[in-house]
Amino acid sequence: MSLALNIEELMGYMASVFPQVSDDFAIEELSEDRLIMRLKVAHRHLRPGGTVSGPSMFALADCGVYAMVLARVGRQGLAVTTSCSMDFMRKPEGGVDMLAEVRLLKLGKLLAVGDVLMRSEGSDKIVARATMTYSIPPAGSVAAKAG
């Protein structure tokens, strides 16, 4: 299966449906089986102790899998997260961006499952891992037409 959206189309669409977070993220790489998303770490992403907060890492994983699903299936604004499991393994650096490597493990007609490995830029050490499941609106549904 080929990509339905390239990086520019994907970033433009995400900015139109989620303008509140569009400045926080950038897609660095995109292929049929992998996406690299950057969290542009700012003060608002930090928790006491100067580390990136859990909610910010969740947002990175969630937006990364959402972007990967959209890249494959096209403009489906109402694709939604149905499940998430996250493991926090070590403290990320607070003064550098975070990178998430996203891979789709399954892409069906109604569900997509993605795996995300997150690290601080400049380090190979994984700081968190997430598995996300997304529900994709059935073709022809009102939800699918909303995209």
From TrEMBL:
It holds the Pfam family 4HBT. Keywords: Hydrolase. GO terms for molecular function: acyl-CoA hydrolase activity. InterPro entries: HotDog_dom_sf (IPR029069), PAAI_dom (IPR003736), Thioestr_dom (IPR006683). Residues 49-124 form the Thioesterase domain. It comes from the Bacteria. Gene3D superfamilies: Hotdog Thioesterase (3.10.129.10). The keyword Hydrolase applies. The keyword Hydrolase applies. This is Thioesterase domain-containing protein.
